[in-house]
Specification:
Layout: H1 9-13, H2 19-38, H3 41-65, H4 74-90, H5 95-114, H6 122-142, H7 144-147, E1 153-154, E2 158-160, E3 163-165, H8 171-194, H9 196-206, H10 208-213, H11 218-244, E4 246-247, H12 254-267, H13 272-300, H14 310-325, H15 329-343
Antiparallel strand pairs: 1-4, 2-3
């Protein structure tokens, strides 16, 4: 059993619990830094895709995982960030200015769109955001002078400090760019959760009535959550556009919104680790299925057969399994396993028992 004896407040708010956990984070960081040397261009591109999904997952995690506001429309904010970044680059702005501006524009538009939805809860908010995701397709087509309509746009190579970065021409440089953005967003997210605003998010998620009784301004807190969530998602959308190279109104469909929500549920709601674990599943599962079909075809001596809807069906099956048997996701399962080893033989299953009813204060709404 590992017991952490805290002697100062700084120990309580630091991102790691003890030296062992810090060493694991450092090993993971070292592996990420060594990835361009260990992987070929194909797998490095897949890892880059996972990091972009992780940024988008952290954007949705702010809103859904830590503020408790369900959203099925974050594909719309991915599209906003993508198009805003490319349009600003076409206007002659340097990437180091256009990229953060794309996130800022997406965050501001997200707050404006969210104002009418601030009084909605649960399924009603999810339906409202889903409608936004569906409408974004028509908005992109109708805004053809800016967005290119159905023909779409092509992402140009970007220059950072005199270094030209292109997804296909310089995959390692592009990986470093995405990795740097991932680290910055992750560190910012960690500090956000330790701030009064981040704790207000969690208070609103657990009980809006109780949070209001403690002095939390509900509408302002939700608006800030929408702003930060949409801004981070906009940054991920800008990177997705550069990663894809070409995109149009069909690139950021409502399916992307559903995949994002599935990703954080499978990874583990309410934790930054969950965003990364879910991104690994979303990013690598299609390739795993493709390799598995080739392996099965070689084993039985036949040709591989394309199965329409296979990926969607597998994603749905995984989601059903986690909702029924492990609602806390992959990270929740890891917490249970770790706690079992730390507390053995005093571990009890009821430690992680789900609450089956609302707080009494929630019945007052």
């Amino acid at each position: 059993m590992r017991i952490v004896f805290k002697t100062s407040y700084l120990q309580d708010i630091r991102p790691w619990k003890h030296g062992y956990q810090l060493s694991l984070y450092l090993i993971l960081l070292a592996l990420a830094l060594a990835a361009p040397l260990l992987l070929d261009d194909f797998y490095l591109g897949e890892l880059t895709n996972v990091l972009i999904w992780a940024i988008a997952g952290m954007g949705l995690m702010v809103l859904t995982g830590h503020t408790g506001q369900a959203s099925l429309g974050h594909a719309a904010f991915l599209a906003l960030g993508c198009y805003a970044n490319i349009i600003l680059l076409e206007q002659g702005l340097p990437f180091l200015l256009a990229f953060p501006l794309a996130g800022l524009i997406t965050g501001i538009l997200g707050v404006i769109i969210a104002i009418p939805a601030l009084r909605m809860h649960g399924i009603y908010l999810a339906i409202a955001t889903l409608a936004l995701s569906v409408l974004m397709d028509d908005i992109i087509v109708l805004s053809e002078p800016l967005t290119g309509g159905v023909a779409g746009k092509f992402a140009p190579p970007v220059s950072v400090l005199g270094i030209e970065i292109d997804r296909w021409g310089t995959p390692r440089a592009f990986y470093w760019l995405v990795f740097a953005v991932t680290v910055i967003v992750t560190l910012g997210y960690i500090n956000l959760l330790r701030s009064p605003l981040g704790r207000s998010f969690i208070a609103v998620r657990d009980s809006e009535v109780s949070a209001q009784a403690m002095g939390v301004h509900i509408a302002r807190t939700k608006a800030m959550s929408f702003f930060l969530s949409c801004a981070i998602t906009g940054l991920a959308g800008a990177l997705m556009g550069l990663f894809a190279g070409a995109f149009n109104n069909e690139t950021f469909s409502v399916v992307i919104s559903i995949l994002l929500l599935m990703m954080i549920v499978i990874g583990g709601l309410g934790s930054i680790h969950g965003a990364f674990l879910g991104a690994v599943v979303i990013g690598f599962l299609p390739q795993f299925l493709s390799i598995s079909k080739e392996w099965v075809g070689a084993l039985i001596g036949g040709n591989t057969v394309a199965i329409p809807g296979l990926e969607t069906g597998v994603f749905g099956l995984i989601l059903i399994v986690f909702v029924l048997f492990e609602p806390m996701g992959i990270y929740g399962r890891w917490l249970k396993i770790r706690t079992w080893f730390e507390l053995f033989p005093f571990y009890r299953r009821d430690m992680f028992k789900r609450q089956k009813s609302y707080l009494k204060t929630e019945r007052l709404r």
